[in-house]
């Protein structure tokens, strides 16, 4: 056992010295290899983090959202619909929501205005998202003037800024009291933007939605799982776009690595001949070269992944941010939470370390099975 | 004793460039003597040496080492015999550039997995014995021709083989270094080791150290002359 370990140590030692002897070639390879792993891992980590973030945010969202449809478009929904749907089995809570969009020509951005259900605000008081605060240079106590639906400006006093942790969804958000919002948008009492339903048992969600379509035929129920699926599809699509963009680089690397790995130089071929002639078995030579390829690919994988981790979670993934996150005037300051998905890590490891290591072994095996007397000739 | 029976070696068999290097050769070599294979270039002496040293297999015929047929053994067993029985000194020495002198010497023993201090001590002892003790950590490309040859001999001896095999060992050396080499061979003979050399250097062929000479031409043995019995 100890002898076997000692043997492997000798092979690793020799592999390291062999790598050091071809320093230029191997450093070049390691750099390009790490860069490719870095790019792929960055995209994977960033997208995964966005998916997780979206899932975490939507976890608190209601299971069913009901919108009224008039002529194929969303319309305000009467509060009476809450009574019309009656008591549905499995629905633990139902209420109307009031919200809307407002375009601010001053910064050419859209705000989302909502009623502050969990905050007591004075009629002219608002809470604003951090994105708006940054864009308009506002702080608590400042006033924000917006043009209402009647064309007259309405001034609101900023009571506070929404917490930074929720910035991904609250960056463009303005919360105000319900009467103020109705007055600002001109929405009469008894009408809501949409209705929300909370369903405790996930198995009952679809059944409740089916009943709703029968009870309220002019409405459209939207399930939370559908929203999640849409987010997933968007992030998958964006990830795919980046991968396609990276395909050229990936292909160049594959050609480069294949050339480096599968072609043995005359010097390497002779070295294998010498090793065999002085008493190394074919298996010993392959083991040594396996360590050599493994050390390169493993180092590149670890280095690339570490850089990607730092890039995504400490530098906010600045290279891919615009593509993966989408664009907005009120960009949320999104700090991805460090998440490493085991399966994703294993997939990347498998597709980056194994092909290279195997590619190095084929020519070595071919060289190593030839008679060692080639060094004599 | 190494015994060869009706050995033939054909390169590129079945191709237009087929070449028969050895033709039905039979001979015996005393494993504890100094034997010289001599002959002009292309006579087949290096091929014969590689067959004897288990570096290649014959196309036909049998090779026996101490009565055991080795010519049909699988590569793994052949490597084992090569490692434990033979030490090789190549014409261009074939030291691995970029490695230190002592690393080169230790290299044949790596697959054995000996404890590192023991192996290093053994390698250093051999290098000290051949006057290279002060250059253990020097890279081999800095060595002179004579030093490189002595390094190659040390490497050949690291696994304590019974027979040293040297292919044209003095082809790149001057007369003084050739005599130095012969002195080393004599020393090895004194330690009870056998040496098999290929050479067409007259200094080697005429040396009293040679105990048996096998003359080759066109892949056939011309004569065998016992120098000492």
Question: What is the strand and helix layout of this fold?
Answer:
The complex is a heterodimer of chains A (377) and B (229).
Chain A: H1 2-21, H2 23-59, E1 64-70, E2 73-75, E3 77-78, H3 80-84, E4 91-97, E5 99-104, E6 109-115, E7 125-128, H4 130-136, E8 143-147, E9 153-161, H5 167-170, E10 173-176, H6 178-185, E11 191-192, E12 194-199, H7 205-215, E13 219-223, H8 224-262, H9 266-277, H10 282-313, H11 321-325, H12 342-368
Parallel strand pairs in A: 6-10, 7-9
Antiparallel strand pairs in A: 1-2, 1-12, 1-13, 3-11, 4-12, 5-6, 7-10, 8-9
Chain B: E1 2-11, E2 19-29, E3 34-38, H1 45-52, E4 60-65, E5 68-69, H2 75-85, E6 86-89, H3 101-106, H4 116-129, H5 145-157, E7 163-167, H6 175-190, E8 194-198, H7 202-205, E9 212-217, E10 220-226
Parallel strand pairs in B: 3-8, 3-9, 6-7, 7-8
Antiparallel strand pairs in B: 1-2, 1-4, 4-5, 9-10
- Helix and strand run of chain A: HHEEEHEEEEHEEHEHEEHEHHHHH
What about the largest sheet of chain A? 6 strands, mixed
Put simply, the count of helices of chain B is: 7
Poorly predicted tracts of residues of chain A: none
The assigned structural class of chain A equals alpha+beta
What is the mean pLDDT of chain B?
89
Largest interface: A-B, 33 and 34 residues
- Helix amount of chain B, in percent? 25-40%
- Order of secondary-structure elements of chain B: EEEHEEHEHHHEHEHEE
Description:
The complex is a heterodimer of chains A (377) and B (229). Chain A is of the alpha+beta class and 377 residues long. Chain A has 2 domains: 9-58 and 230-376, no CATH class; 63-222, Barwin-like endoglucanases. Chain A is built from 12 helices and 13 strands. In chain A, the strands form 3 sheets. A 6-stranded mixed β-sheet of chain A has the order 5-6-10-7-9-8. In chain A, strands 1, 2, 4, 12 and 13 form a 5-stranded antiparallel β-sheet that branches. In chain A, β1 (64-70) and β2 (73-75) form a beta hairpin. Chain B is globular. Chain B is an alpha/beta fold and 229 residues long. Chain B has 7 helices and 10 strands. The interface between A and B is medium-sized, with 33 and 34 residues.
